[in-house]
Design goal:
about 650 residues; Rossmann fold; 6-stranded mixed beta sheet; 4-stranded antiparallel beta sheet; 21 helices; binds adenosine-5'-triphosphate; transmembrane; ABC transporter ATP-binding protein/permease; ATP binding; cell membrane; membrane
Length: about 650
Amino acid sequence: MSSSTSTPPRSRSPLGRGRKAADDGPRARFSQLLPFLFEHKKVLALVVALSIVGAAASLAQPLLVSQVITVVQAGDPLDMLVWALVGLVIVSGVISGYQHYLLQRTGTSVVYSARRQLVHRILRLPISQFDRRRTGDLVSRVGSDTTMLYAVITQGLVDAVGGSLVFVGALIAMLIIDPVLLGLTVLVIAVSVVTVVLISGRVRVVSRKQQEKVGDLAAAVERSISAIRTVRASNATERETAAIEADARGAFDMGVKVAKISALVVPIAGIALQVSFLVVLGVGGFRVASGAITIASLVSFILFLFMMIMPLGQAFGAINSVNQALGALGRIQEVIDLPVEGQDDREIAAKAAAAGAVGAALAGAPAIEFVDVHFAYETPAKVEDEAALETAAAAAAAGFAAAPDGEPAGDTTLDAVAGKGVLHGVSFAAARGKRTAIVGPSGAGKSTILALIERFYDPTSGSVRFGGVDVRELDRIDLRSQIGYVEQDAPVLAGTIRQNLLLATPDATDEECVRVLHAVNLGEVLERSEEGLDAAVGEDGVMLSGGERQRLAIARALLAAPPVLLLDESTSSLDGLNEQMLREAIDAVAENRSLIVIAHRLSTVVDSDQIVVVDHGRVVGVGTHSELVLSTPLYRDLAKHQLLV
Ligand SMILES: Nc1ncnc2c1ncn2[C@@H]1O[C@H](COP(=O)(O)OP(=O)(O)OP(=O)(O)O)[C@@H](O)[C@H]1O
């Protein structure tokens, strides 16, 4: 958002903005994971309850085994004990299977919930966010980063909760059996826990970087695919492939790093088990020999030791997967924390809605009016010192733990600053029910004018008025429902003709669809395929010609029958017939409504009620064609070039 009035403070996200750490980038805390888990608290509670039962069943096993040994030594019959053991094994198996299913389902639900939140947020971000974010990276956050959350649930976290019960239970049992042996075991375990915690902080950082690389990869793929014809025609396939492969390689390298660090974690539980086993066996042997404990006690102590180490391994796995997930969650949360479009003006909009401001547009006021409008797009801030960031990241890596906050070392490309002015004191009024054309050289600011009417951006100063009311005082949804907008060059969505038409007017009937298609001279496309309205138009409408695409977009706007229609004429050159059809389409939509059309071909606009000439963001002339030819040199030149005078 470029408006000085509505731009939120720089520090938008608690994670990313305004706070730069050595490993620059969005970071998530464990507490931010909790809301995702909390959504499933009932199922998770059930899983924990099952874990407790499972833990009890597991804990009972060594006790039974110890009983079996005692009974065998005494030469007594074993019947009941054996059946109890079999029963316990079966119960443990069933419980663990059900638990596994619940965890997988919950993991999938957490991913689903994160995706929903992300999509909900992304589609509502201010347009300025799309100017500086890469589409592929956003797609990757929805598709890839979210899947990392799955592992938190399935790989350990909840298991570790249940496991910790086994751990505590085993600990108590071991304490009762032999406190001396336990002391030695705890010592070995404490060393391994400290090591794992130190290593896993690094996993979070590297995992986030890996996700960033996956984002880069997705953005690169999107870039090439969306321009595939140009890429092919430029013989750039090899170079584009190489560039994408380099991004894939970056993701792979980071993946290998994650694997290396994780690989340090995995054997630690095993090593801890082996070391404690040897210590317990050695010292335990002496203690049996000296009569301090019995053989049965030593055997059950060792079984408890195994039982205690298993959940420890789970806990280490959990720490690892949580840290990986937190890397991805940082990127998810960064988007979720962005303000949605209009977040700042909710109060104004509520007031406006209460007052019915759109409906109460002032009688006699122009449909659209610009009053001394100045505007500058925000431009992404530069990364000031990448080398400093790298050094700081390396320093943090050496420290192994999660990076501490540092001084701002630079700026990511997602922060924005006000760029150079695009509109400078633009004033004009588009009368109701009339046709206003905006003309001017490329880059003059014509499309920007339409963007301000749609409130994709707000002016830096001055005001844009709809029916005499400043658009900032209107509810955006109401405002947009009054305005049709046909954007330049890319107006068709993948899908069928019907889906395209119904985008703004989901309830329109087939008859209405067919009527608007005829109104814009597109009746013929219905005859091309037996499917009629259900014929697919392909990604970006590639199955339609440039002129047809533009007219389909006009038909869509026409179907909604808005009182004001903004039309950014396609810059692509149309042949005579297509141009004629476009003019007829515009004539059809101009009926009974206020039309503002950006024209690249003066022939489309010579008969407009009013023409506004824009040059370098300034209005340099307003009038009819014949007036402007006399009064405005720029217009005269444009007209001359297009052979109209
Ligand atoms: N989203 C954007 N972010 C930053 N700058 C932009 C953005 N859109 C346009 N600009 C800049 O604003 C200026 C005006 O662009 P605009 O698209 O309004 O011109 P135009 O008159 O419609 O041009 P054309 O006739 O070529 O479509 C240009 O210098 C352009 O580079």
